[in-house]
């Protein structure tokens, strides 16, 4: 089994910062891409940022220059540093990790449980 545990969400004022973490554990042979998605009330889930196993990154236009994704391969953990937060960043944030459990296994996509980020004064 594989578990993804997210942390770091909360309430922050506009212009503030938060750092989200997502740690993968369990039966893990290798990890490919790791990413963050978010879903605001009444809206579809959208990609926020993604980082490949080689360290290449891609961001949604709405967060470029404000959010930074990173990963610690030794800890099987992905982070997103969120700065200059805006009310429109309010959403449930989900981590998403492509994991291969062993030789002979396919790579599967796993989701975290979600963590609420609220940006409000």
General description of the model:
The chain is mainly β. The chain contains no helices and eleven strands. It has strands at residues 2-7, 10-12, 18-26, 30-39, 46-51, 57-59, 67-72, 77-82, 91-100, 107-111, 115-119. The strands form two sheets. Strands 2, 4, 5, 6, 9, 10 and 11 form a seven-stranded mixed beta sheet that branches. It is elongated and about 50 Å long. The N and C termini lie far apart (40 Å).
Instruction: Report the portion of residues in β strands.
Output: over 45%
Note the total helix count. 0
Kindly state the percentage of residues in helix.
under 10%
Category from helices, strands and their pairing: mainly beta
């Amino acid at each position: 089994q594989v578990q993804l545990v997210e942390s770091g969400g909360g309430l922050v004022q506009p212009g503030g910062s938060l750092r989200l973490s997502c740690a993968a554990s369990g039966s893990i042979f290798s990890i490919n891409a790791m990413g963050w998605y978010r879903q605001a009330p009444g809206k579809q889930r959208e990609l926020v940022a993604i980082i490949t196993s080689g360290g290449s990154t891609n961001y949604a236009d709405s967060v470029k220059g404000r959010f930074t994704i990173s990963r610690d391969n030794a800890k099987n953990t992905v982070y997103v540093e969120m700065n200059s937060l805006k009310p429109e960043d309010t959403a449930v944030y989900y981590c998403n990790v492509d994991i291969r459990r062993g030789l002979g296994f396919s790579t599967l996509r796993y989701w975290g449980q979600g963590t609420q980020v609220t940006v409000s004064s």
